[in-house]
Amino acid sequence: MPRSSNAVASRTRRKKVLKMAKGYFGARKNVYTVAKNAVEKGLTYAYIGRKLKKRQFRSLWIMRINAAARQHGMSYSVFMGKLNSSGIELNRKVLADLAMNHPEAFKAVVDQIK
């Protein structure tokens, strides 16, 4: 019995990779073996990037809270320590938003923990 190649599935798989490589430069967009490597590396970077994004946002929130807390005569660490001991459960994302967009609300939080 002759060997079956299942060309339909192979072509579908290759087309999927080439579709993901759309917009790449040179042979990376139309040569399957080159595109496969480029797409694989791109997906790796995308996975790592999703983790880095979370770290970078947390870092940004901390910087914003620190800047706002210092305007009220308090460092970030002192502010967060008092915030936790006072039992106010606001996360860094919300605190950073208050510090940037609603300074009077942030001042109210600072006054409450002093």
How is this structure best summarized?
The protein is mostly helical and 114 residues long. The chain has helices spanning 7-20, 32-71, 76-86, 92-101, 103-113. The relative contact order is 0.08.
Oligomer designation: single chain
> What's the overall geometry?
rod-shaped
CATH superfamily: Ribosomal protein L20, C-terminal domain
What value does the average pLDDT take?
Answer: 96
Radius of gyration: 26 Å
Classify the beta-strand content into a percent band.
Answer: under 5%
Query: What structural category arises from helix and sheet content?
Result: mainly alpha
What is the CATH class designation?
A: Mainly Alpha
Query: How many individual β-strands?
Result: 0
End-to-end C-alpha gap: 84 Å
- CATH topology label: c-terminal domain of poly(a) binding protein
Series of secondary-structure elements, N-terminal to C-terminal: HHHHH
**In terms of per-residue confidence, which ranges show pLDDT below 50 for 5 or more consecutive residues?**
none
Proportion of residues in helical segments: over 70%
How many domains?
Answer: 1
What's the main sheet like?
none
Helix tally equals: 5
Named at the architecture level, the CATH assignment is Orthogonal Bundle
